[in-house]
Each structure stands twice: as C-alpha cells, then as structure tokens.
Amino acid sequence: MKRRTSWIAVGAAAGAVAITVAVSVFNWHVIGDAGIDTNGWIALVLGALVTLAVGIGLMALIFISNRRGYDDAAGTGRGEDR
User: Fold this and answer.
1) Rounded CA gap, 4 and 10, in Å?
2) What is the pTM of this model?
C-alpha cells in the first residue's frame, strides 16, 4: 500500500508541474512581445539570487539543527513520551 501511495503522490506532483508549465506557456504566448529593460533584468536576477540564498540558508539551518540534535527534545512535555 505504501508503494501505491508513493506513485499517487509522484503522479499528483507531475500533474501539478505539467499544469504549471502549460499555464506558463499559455501566458507567455498571450503576453506576446514584452520587453524588459535593464532595470527589469537587474531586479529579476537579484530576486532569483535572494530567493536562492534564502532557500539554501533555510536548508542549511535544518541540516545543522538535525546534526547537532536541537530537534531531539522538541517532543518532550507534550504527552507523547509518556
């Protein structure tokens, strides 16, 4: 049963990606020939870099927290360990 739900999850994720790509391609064609000036490209690149940095930073914090054991005591005192 676990294997079946994994395939369902993969299928749902692939479907979501396919729908997102289809909507993006449709919107790209509807917009037509829209130009981006230099300031727009700078904003696009900076936005992508900042988003990437935040994602990498958060993932690094998750791995550091896991390795140092900061999350081990998170369940104590809530009735789960009794």
Assistant:
1) 10
2) 0.52
Residues 40, 30 share a domain: no
- Predicted pLDDT of residue 39: 96
Q: Residue 17: which domain range?
A: 1-34
Question: Could you tell me the two tokens for 13?
Answer: 């994720």
Answer yes or no: is 63 within a domain. Answer: yes
pLDDT tens digits for range 3-59: 888 999 999 999 999 999 999 999 988 988 778 899 999 999 999 999 999 999 999
DSSP structure string for the chain? -HHHHHHHHHHHHHHHHHHHHHHHHHHHHHH-S----HHHHHHHHHHHHHHHHHHHHHHHHHHHHHHHTTTGGGGTTTTS--
Domain shared by 39 and 21, yes or no: no
